[in-house]
Amino acid sequence: MVQKEHRLFASQFKKRMDAASQERVRIVIKEQYKDAFEVLEDCENAGLIPGIVGPPGVGKTLLLRAYAEKSKRNFHWITGDEGVRPSHLIGSFNPALVLQKGFNLESFEPGPLLKSMVFGSVFGLNEANRLPEYVQNSLLEPFEERSANVQRLGRIQADEDFFPVLSMNPEEMAGAHRLSEALRDRIRVWIKLGYPRKATEIEIVKVNCPEYNLSDHVLAQIYSLVSATRSSTDIEIPASIRAGISIARLSAQMARRKRLEEIDHNTLSTAAHYVLVGALRFRPGVDAEPAVNALVRRVLGSKRSSESGQST
Ligand SMILES: Nc1ncnc2c1ncn2[C@@H]1O[C@H](COP(=O)(O)OP(=O)(O)OP(=O)(O)O)[C@@H](O)[C@H]1O
Ligand SMILES: [Mg+2]
Question: Which domains does the chain have, with CATH numbers?
Answer without folding.
Answer: 24-192 (3.40.50.300), 198-307 (1.10.8.80)
